[in-house]
Fold:
Amino acid sequence: MMRARSLPSYCVMSPEDLLDWTAGIMESGPVMGPVERPDQPGFHAFDLLRRPEDLVLRYTTTTMPPKKAFFPPTETVFRFTAGNPPGLTPVREEPPRVLMGVHPCDLSALDALDRAYSFPPPDRRWLYNRSRSIILGVDCVPDEYCFCDSLGVSQARRPCDLFLTEIERGYLVETHTPAGGDLLSGARTSDPRGQDFLDAEDRRRQKNLGFRGRLEADPDRLADFLESGSFREIWEEIAARCYSCGSCNTTCPACFCFTMDDVFDWDLQSGERRRAWDACQLLDFAAVAGGHRFRGERWQRVRHRWHRKFLYLHRRFGRPFCTGCGRCSRACTADINILDETNRIIAAAAKGGGRA
Amino acid sequence: MPETGQRAGSPADWTYLPEPARIVSIRRDAVDAVIELELADRRSLGHKPGQFVQVSMFGYGEIPISVCSSPTRTDRFKLCVRPVGRVSNALYHAAEGGWVGIRGPFGRGFPVRTMRNRDVLAVAGGFGLAPLRSLIQYVRDNREGYGRLIVVYGARNPSMILFRDDVETWGRGEDMEMLLTVDEADESWTGRTGVLTEPLEKEVELIPRSTVAAVVGPPVMFRFAAASLLEKGMNRRRIFFSLERRFECGIGKCGHCQLNGVYVCQDGPVFRYSDLEGFSEAVEARAPE
Structure:
């Protein structure tokens, strides 16, 4: 049925039918989506749904990005037991069957991570987890930190399977993949009418009016700008405010650095290897055992973050590793705003002021 | 990396799951230990000179170590360990018959093809001799394929000379030239004293067009060694550096070894000097305090 149709295809679902459908999906496996944080009412976090009605589809950006569905902040990679040879047991937690309520910026970030982690040799844990999940995107309303339109991803759909836009009658549902179509086959839907598309178009227009800041250049030109000079004064000025806390890294949906550590069990005979998110802004991120610190100066780490997002990874994977979600700016305790600082670089580059 | 051997789980688990390897022998001296390893299934590691492996000491963690033996020798391989961190300390004190975990080999090694039929100059500062030993052995085991083999090795003091037996053999100069120096001599020392750029500048005569240099040492050494080699008329394209960085994955994912636009673990650790030009972070480092 769905497979035969050309994609994307469209249908309409009422809020009540969405609730029933979600309940049905939850019976077949764990579902992750934005829920209100019990510790911070009014704020939302991606978490496993306990009840279908906990799913919140109208929310501002979560503090932590949804990449954790496939790449948890900390996870056990394998367990070991002393022996001859030692016993090694791989450990993998099953990802959610469905990841719901992902904004376009975060979809775009998952696309970024797909590129980085599938680049040979691939991170097979990521590939496996991604292949096990279906992603349902949802459109959003920007706040004062958002600038995803400047990065051209405000209408991003890849890599979602289904995408919802809120309309008068409920939701306009776009089906982007056969897997999404299969999941949708268990739902009560109706055919879309002309007015439904007009509603959705109106939503998009409103969204586009909601962005307060703009990147002052085409994001694809940032790599060249960053290479056009040293911008040392700007990096040092940002570094003078930065605490090197790494919050910008931790909250970034397109950051993917990690560290590995072992933990012994109490018996000192067995234990596990754990992987955890890491942050390039931390002092020892590039330190080696002999004591040498590469990027030991704070301004070097600040520069590294910009270079990695807009230069290194862009050149390597064909796109910037920033989606304009604004999480780093929201999280920054020193109020360092990625959009403002990037615009400073652009202005300095335009004046030829990077200086070698 | 070869996805065979004695591995548990499914392919989805293999990226970060090591293979067990047995410690066949361990030779410890005051500053380093040389550990001989054999994979659990006795397969050969399949490495090239200059490549590294990720070594697990279960319960302590995983670190990158360059293989210091040549693949031309046996199916076993050797690692030289200096106890400077948590994992390397545990490795240094490991017992014969004990087990470690191995992932790899990873990275690009020394350009043994480019070196073919040319003179090979190996410049080793301190611990840099460990990775270069695999190259030196490799060239000596394929002696007819290469021109002169010149090794310039600078140790901090006589007690910190690595691979003493090898250095002695190499010094007899039957099929190679060996120039050994120490930064600080002691009473027993009768050899050269001074930094390695001194013998490199004064004693090494090379034909720049037919020489390929491999340089490994602490960050501060690269600039001086490179300056000496350029002074001798060598082309940047024929000078290779092996860089040390923090690696947590070995496959260009963890982000720790990013050096400007490249991943040292995948694109290196051995780089052409000319490819590092314009890389602000290549040899820029804050030295240990």
Notes: The mean pLDDT of chain A is 94.
